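Protocol step 4 of 6: structure prediction from sequence.
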Amino acid sequence: MRTFECHCCQPPTRLFFDNTRCTVCHAEVGWCPVCSSVTALIPQGADYRCANPACGATLVKCFNYAHHDVCNRLLTPADAARYHGLCDCCRHNTVIPDLSIEGHRERWAALEAAKRRLFYTLDLMGLPHPAPQDGVALPLRFAFMADALPDAGLWRSAEGSDKVYTGHAEGLITINLKEADDVERERLRVDLNEPLRTLIGHFRHEIGHYYWDLLVKGQDEAACRSVFGDHDTPTYAEALERYYAEGPAPDWRERHVSAYATMHPWEDFAETFSLYEDIVSVLDTAGDLGLTRAAPESGIDAMILAFQRVGMGLNELNREMGLLDVVPVIITPAIRDKLAYVHDLVIRAATSPRG
């Protein structure tokens, strides 16, 4: 994730991706879709003007920015009319949390912040992410739902059909709201032995399932089978039951990016896709900070090498502070081949004509 500048300040103040206000001149700021940057907003009647002198576009605040303060994105007046005032991220929502419940707005804001980072990376990768309003066969949608109520700082689980499972089905990504509760998510991370159980990790994993449906299903399944295994045998239900009964094989790290990736080829693909997104996003940030550069066009091997160099440095810095490794995955030759498949799939999707 690169950083930006507040052009209202002299010299310009650095702005970050999640900012809604400049800390120096106190101007409101937001993401301009025209110049693809976080910029100061100059009031212009009921609208705003992008303060970037190279842009100057007329902009409207996203409805969820103006009314709920869970977003920081803008849109053009034309898109505001087309998408009912919702930005390129928020227009994908089909279910949002019940805002009458204390704490839900804050947790929704955390989910939206992670989703915006997801979309930034998808745009870096050049992948399509059609909204429900775009009239395509498989639109990308999100449902943020709770199966529990906050009770004295804890979560009280609901029973039966009220249970919400984080997952993907036919273009709909559902995230349980309790994943935005730091204490609850850490408990689950430890219980399930998942080193990188984070909000952005959930989004990157579930979007992997979406792109399997969009780019692989009925189009590239034979090639995917040759890399990840047969996704038809055993069935997903059989594989799930076996995984929770037996766990992963002792040598799973040789071929999989996580223990959960061993459960079924679909999960292996989603976990590998998530790692690929990690690589793209980390290298984008590292490049902006002047640490290293390796864009997707450099090829997967150059990307992996740069990622490993950055990862080693980040891991050692975290260890000095007694924190978890930022990059816990060792990329073996088998994992490299899976990443290469995902890389080639992404490049083909990014360069193919879109109807």
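Step 5 (inspection) to follow. The two ends are 29 Å apart (CA to CA).
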